[in-house]
Amino acid sequence: MDFLSATLARVKPSPTIAVTNKAAELKAAGRDIIALGAGEPDFDTPQNIKDAAVKAIAEGKTKYTVVDGIPELKKAVCAKFKRDNGLEYTPAQVSVSTGGKQVLYNALMATLNEGDEVVIPAPFWVSYPDMVLLAGGTPVIAEASIQTGYKLTADQLEAAITPKTKWLIFNSPSNPTGAGYSWDELKELTDVLMRHPHVWVLTDDMYEHLAYDDFEFCTPAQVEPRLYDRTLTVNGVSKAYAMTGWRIGYAAGPEELTKAMRKVQSQSTSNPCSISQWAAVEALNGTQDFLAPNNETFVRRRDLVVKMLNEVDGINCPVPEGAFYVYPSIAGLIGKTSAAGTVIADDEAFATALLEETGVAVVFGAAFGLSPNFRVSYATADEALLEACTRIKTFCDGLR
């Protein structure tokens, strides 16, 4: 259609949203569907946060706000970064948006010119490359493998950087793998970045508080303070606080950058929902006591899924350090044929056949830039995970 923008042709719809929608359609049509595609905790938003939102409504805090966040929320963000990460920011360095995705989008729109490159480690969250393309930049994919725990090495980062590189997008713990970088692993990457002063760092720390076992979260500007002036540290309340629908993300970085991001937001969505902002103030300032028991639940679910998937011939499922995803390899299943006659030519064929033949919805690995794999979100009930993994095993055992 000639009427549509040529820029639109550079990007594709989100595969994770597509899988979620397809699963919902099948369920509405009467199919027995177990959806493991959405990156959304099944926990309810904590009561103190909901109470803060109700209070904001009762007090009439339902009007337009400052474009990129109310002062109270910016102050809470500054306190969070100091408390959790040892990073000092002023409110002028903070930007609040309608979810973490808009924070990332604003930053890229405010900084990228045609020809600028953005290094993106793979596997990656599906939206990173397309947001770079929408902003006129060029994604440069640096592929990490299962052999390195899906983590980028210093040598791989060094090889990906060119004179045109403007950003590195860094995500730990990772969506889709759950892989988390230790302090020493991240220091190796920041050492590379110190040799390339033209490269800025765009972090995605959305899963910061979902860290398990002995893994301790850290973020680039914390590990290498000399990167402070060229790092945008992004976070939000969606995952740890079970506030996905409230749509609040935030970031802190150089004031010149946050001012540019404010300009982008002022001419697009303007301010995030006022009520959600007041709820986020309570999320950041209020009790954090629910995080530990929630994480215990996630660890139990992770261990269940990893154990059951690793019992399937042809599947190799590493144990993730955080988030609520596993990213098993199906290299041992490629080329086989399902009981219904579908050839498993790649991971997309695997995911399609699995949904059609068993009713289990997962996201295929090619969507995240590394195949042959698939992503399972274990942010759902134990009973559903047990049944889903049982169906996956039955499906795989039936491959010939």
UniProtKB/TrEMBL annotation:
| Statement: the UniProt record of this protein carries the keyword Transferase | yes
Q: Report the EC number(s), separated by commas if there are several.
A: 2.6.1.-
Select a single GO molecular function from the record's annotations and give it: pyridoxal phosphate binding
- Keyword match Transferase: yes
Name of the molecule in the record: Aminotransferase
Pfam families xrefs: Aminotran_1_2 (PF00155)
Q: Give the protein's cofactors.
A: pyridoxal 5'-phosphate
GO aspect biological process, one term: amino acid metabolic process
What organism does the UniProt record list as the source? Aliishimia ponticola
Q: Which domain of life is it from?
A: Bacteria
**Family according to the record:** Belongs to the class-I pyridoxal-phosphate-dependent aminotransferase family.
Q: How does it assemble?
A: Homodimer.
Q: What is the lineage of its organism?
A: Bacteria, Pseudomonadati, Pseudomonadota, Alphaproteobacteria, Rhodobacterales
Keywords attached to this Swiss-Prot or TrEMBL record, sorted alphabetically, are: Aminotransferase, Pyridoxal phosphate, Transferase
Q: Which residues form the Aminotransferase class I/classII large domain?
A: 32-392
Which InterPro entries does this chain map to? Aminotransferase_I/II_large, AspAT/PAT-like, NHTrfase_class1_PyrdxlP-BS, PyrdxlP-dep_Trfase, PyrdxlP-dep_Trfase_major, PyrdxlP-dep_Trfase_small
Name the catalysed reactions: L-aspartate + 2-oxoglutarate = oxaloacetate + L-glutamate
Q: Where is the signal peptide?
A: none
